[in-house]
Amino acid sequence: MPQQAHPFVGTWKLHPHKSKLEPSELVMGAAAHEEQTMVIAERGGELEVRIAVRGHHRGPASAHYVIPAAGGEGRVIESQFTSVSGEQISDRVRESTFYSDGNPIVTIRSEVSADGKTLTATVQGNDPESGQSVSGSAIYEKQ
């Protein structure tokens, strides 16, 4: 019997009209009206995450990191953050914390819907550039 893919694996596109981000221009480098695509692949027990943002108010933005699927310390390949850690809460829920020089900056609790078509990312923390508080929910649809 083939092993099922991790529920987070796939290509996810931000649904700007369903997302509620405050302030909208600061959350994870993407405004609610900007185009954001997240690609998650599973390789050898790790989740490789690539995020691309178009129309970014500070110019094009991207992030690339790898994190253990079961949880633990990950590694940042490209990002405004210097490190990342994660926890697998349940089959469909993960929590990731992003750090800058050892200080926690943003925590994101992500949940994949039961039908596997929607990913809701609840964000809480601070913008790493301005230090301004950010919070809200980003809604992604599986492509």
Question: Would you kindly provide a written description of the structure presented here, covering whatever features stand out?
Answer:
There is one protein chain. The chain is mainly β and 143 residues long. It has one domain (10-142): Calycin beta-barrel core domain (Lipocalin, Beta Barrel), CATH 2.40.128. It is 0% helix and 60% strand. The model is unreliable at 26-30 (pLDDT under 50).
Which structural class fits the helix and strand makeup?
A: mainly beta
**Whole-number radius of gyration?**
14 Å
CATH superfamily, by name, is Calycin beta-barrel core domain
Number of strands: 12
Order of SSEs, N→C? EEEEEEEEEEEE
Low confidence ranges? 26-30
Strand content: over 45%
Proportion in helices: under 10%
CATH architecture field = Beta Barrel
The overall number of domains is: 1
Mean pLDDT value: 86
| Main beta sheet strand tally, sense and closure | 12 strands, antiparallel
